[in-house]
Structures
1.
Amino acid sequence: MAIINLREYYPWYAHDELVEIPDIIAEELIADRRYERAFKRRTIYNGMTAEQFIMAWVKSEFITPKRLLFGANNIYYDLLKGGEQP
């Protein structure tokens, strides 16, 4: 028989409440806690949640251009030269 503290599992317990439970239930509680921690680790990538990472990837792949094109447009020079603005 294992002894657990209910305050670790239920946030509404303000004080320690020790309960004796069968070993098989204690093993399941430990396995569930490990699963929750592993899930939380998988959803974080580079300090971002999965949704933030996917949005950053979509923005970098589809929204921002791959190549920036800069044209030579010196308006002051064109005005002095007498040319027309593009």
2.
Amino acid sequence: MKTNGINPMIRKLLLTMGLGLLVVSAVLWPAVRVDRLNDHFAKVEVNDSKDSVLALMGAPWKDEKCGDYLGGQPAGCVVDFIYAHPYAPYAPQYWVIDFDSQQRVINKVHLVSP
């Protein structure tokens, strides 16, 4: 007997495969993102322009006045770019780049909480 729609066995298989792909993506995407952040962060140098940092790192998670989000600030800091782990604050890992009034990098720090 022929039924309308997809065979229930195939439907169950497709649903299981879709859920499996979703779980794998949820695990792999953060690992790829963190690896990319580490690689690009290593290329940021003191005195780089804000535009060059944006081109290299992409848009930050937070673009704040120095010290507003994480506290503390180096002398001369005007703006923090904060890049966060995809699962922050549950995976507390942040890449912070500080800029002076000339929009130049004056400091960078990778924060990881134990």
3.
Amino acid sequence: MTVTTDDAIAFMDHAMRNWPLNGMGILTDDLEDLRAALEQRDARIRMDGAWQPIETVPKDETQILVEVRAGYFAVVSYWSDAWRETANGLALRNPPIRWMPICTTQGADHAHV
């Protein structure tokens, strides 16, 4: 059985309306976090394999593929106020000009190019 994001969100909406919650509302918080994660995942899947404008780049330590200059690509993430290569942690000298998500298939550690 394949469960779509819409199915999962419908289930979460039903659960939040009908399941008893403890006094802290933890179930509601957990379900809202799950919903946000599913929506982010779906947004990344829709973008997968397509170059994106640098203005839309995530700055949350997500590993991405960037083009720094024509023909030079690097897998980086943004942390400590800089774009850093994931292989060595060194900050990029030049800012990236475009980006794309890297392959998120389990066990894969190479980028879609």
4.
Amino acid sequence: MRSPRFFYGWIIVGAGTLNSALLLGLVFYSFGGFMKPLTQELGRPATLVALGFSLQRLGSGLFSPLAGALIDRFGARFVGLVSGRRSTARPSCSSRASSSSGSFSSSVG
């Protein structure tokens, strides 16, 4: 009887799982360590900075099904390029220039 051949796709699954666990762990659990420097640099209260982080996570959860549908239709490369350009340029340009708390929260979140 022949032994089953090893499926190398499981290496990709394992690497993706490890990558997600490390990156998400670093993002979620290290945010508190950056709270004081962020509040000092941005000149905003801690509640407002935490609100921006919470809104970003909420938006990520709400738009994930839409992102999945767009990836199925147009491909991951196209969606990644379009969303990556939009999600990095807008917050970095507008969060520093915002004058009110509402505009800061909307630009970060």
